[in-house]
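Troubleshooting log. The previous structure file for this entry was overwritten by mistake, so regenerating from the original sequence record. Sequence copied from the archived sheet and checked twice against the printout by T.R.
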Amino acid sequence: MLKLGILLQYGVSMMVLFTVFLIIFVFCVLALIAQRKMYKKLKQRAKELGADAQMFCHHVEGLPVTENALVSLFSLNDRLHIEFSGNKFELYSDKIITVKALTETEILEVSKSTIGRAVVGGILLGGLGAIVGGISGVGTKKKKGKTNNYLVINYHNKDSVPSVISFKNNMNYFALQKFANTVNKQIIQLNNVNGTVVL
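Regenerated output below.
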């Protein structure tokens, strides 16, 4: 009788464990299906626009949308096209100074001086340096754990003032780099006159 009770208790425990595993598995499959549908829609929209590159990112700063909002980025021949919840933003290539993919580690290892926090490798960070590094004293700061990846766009706004738009995407750093390289190549091609890049 005691053995039967132990076997029943063991069976119930295994059933609960199996049910939890099954729920987690179903949730992961549904999340994967939803993600595939999102990327399919992104690629379809890119085709409609004639985009050379596309990606999803979370907005950090620089646009009149909420922080961490999921936006769609499209690189077109003559402009960057950004969509969020029915709103569209366009940044023409002649206004773009540069686009760069950066890791949080690259930003954090910069000296904590005011100038160091504002500029990394020749790219203006705007408030991203303060957001990532926090406001602390002089020195370097390192973070343990998962590293965030950022796409930083430097451009001249309508008043010709250097400005920054930044996004975060932790899914694929290489996709960020590829997107940045595509935009930068388009900027060079736009400024290319008879084989000479006009500076």
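The CA atoms of residues 36 and 42 lie 10 Å apart. Archived copy saved in two places this time.
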